[in-house]
Hints:
The protein has 424 residues and is an alpha+beta fold. The chain folds into two domains: 25-122, Fumarylacetoacetase, N-terminal domain (SH3 type barrels, Roll), CATH 2.30.30; 130-419, Fumarylacetoacetase-like, C-terminal domain (Fumarylacetoacetate hydrolase, domain 2, Alpha-Beta Complex), CATH 3.90.850. Helix content is 18%, strand content 27%. It has helices at residues 48-53, 74-79, 81-95, 100-103, 106-112, 137-148, 227-230, 243-249, 272-275, 332-340, 368-371; strands at residues 25-30, 35-41, 44-47, 113-115, 119-122, 130-133, 164-166, 172-174, 179-180, 183-186, 195-198, 202-203, 206-212, 231-238, 241-242, 263-265, 270-271, 279-280, 300-301, 304-310, 318-324, 351-353, 379-380, 386-387, 395-404, 407-419. Strands 6, 7, 8, 13, 14, 16, 17 and 22 form an eight-stranded mixed sheet that branches. The protein has a five-stranded antiparallel sheet with strand order 4-3-2-1-5. A five-stranded mixed sheet has the order 9-26-25-20-21, with no helix packed on it. β20 (304-310) and β21 (318-324) form a beta hairpin. The radius of gyration is 22 Å and the shape is globular.
Amino acid sequence: MNSTAMKSFIDVPPDSHFPIQNLPFGVFRRQTGDASVGTAIGNHVVDLRALEAANLLRLKAVNGRDLFAHPSLNAFMGAGRAAWREARQILTLLLREDHTTLRDNRKLRDAAIVPFDEVTMLLPCQIGDYTDFYSSLEHATNVGTMFRGKDNALMPNWLHLPVGYHGRSSSIVISGTDLHRPHGQTKSDDAPAPSFGPSRNVDFELEMGFFVGPGNELGRPIPTTAARDHIFGLVLVNDWSARDIQKWEYVPLGPFLAKNFGTSISPWIVTLDALEPFICPGPRQDPPPLPYLKMDEPFSFDVQLEVSLQSEKMSAPHVVCRSNFRHLYWNMAQQLAHHTVNGCNTRPGDLLASGTISGPTPDSYGSMLELAWMRTRPIELPNGETRVAINDGDRITMTGFCEREGLRIGFGGVTGQILPARTG
Length: 424
Ligand code: MN
């Protein structure tokens, strides 16, 4: 049976992001009960702790020890690629329409298979460290043009290394978490002194991020050729940003409070194995990168991305951006190689985000800063409202999926609303 035609005994609607060929990993909680590791199929969660307890998911790669009886994925992430592949193989078999072990075990099915609407998704792991890159040439060029003019748009380092900064993991939140408009210090160009108050320029950033599986020891870099052994899988990321706070604070050390009031991620981690059919070349890199950043094989992925905005007055979300992960100039292997080339260690559950994913056309820009070109070209919404930044009550939703020859491997979505600034 070829893998595109393979089906599960669990119903998968045609537009679902989660066919049997996907099998992403996440952490969920039933209305009553503890958190558990699960996979998604169709509109259902499959409880991996229950399968492990029934001895159907004991992995040889870790001598059968418990990997899923935890409220987080860190142990499984750290177990490595052999364990990930073995779990994927076993789950594929257990969920196939022609395999009877789980299909015909009514009691276990009732215990292990739960509809989406009966669970709450949680953060998939303890995220030790969070790094955010700046890997879209289009985004870096747009922002550089706005702030420094066309001739100085790209900093001299940009084409030679994946620029990044250390973010804050404590404020990473799961999709569905709403955030209050942050307070901070801002200063307009003509004001003599800074002022303090709610940000007047809250924005989204369309990003994707990858979770580190096994880390590297302090002092031992991860070469680009070993990236696949260290990348567990990908999620969607909304790197909420307060542009007015950012503009005043970022010199000379980079983003700080403009970024760490909240970063939202989608709940299901899609593995590299599931994404393998959608590998594609990234943009040509000119000048050629230094040897430690060189990649001989394609390592970009064709993920169609979409951002929508829904104001409190709108009855449905409106798409404001369509982009693609493949536009990124620096790929994940290069990001990881660069991050560790000085010996910096990474650990299971670390999150490395891509940076805003802008494409070449104005409708593919991955932030409102660019879509509304620094507040000069308001975004028009179908009900007549306009936006140059996010208003209180606006909901931002990002989705993404790969699709080819009837196979759709998706990420679900990441959504969140900006609530009014807290008073007092
Ligand atoms: Mn960012």
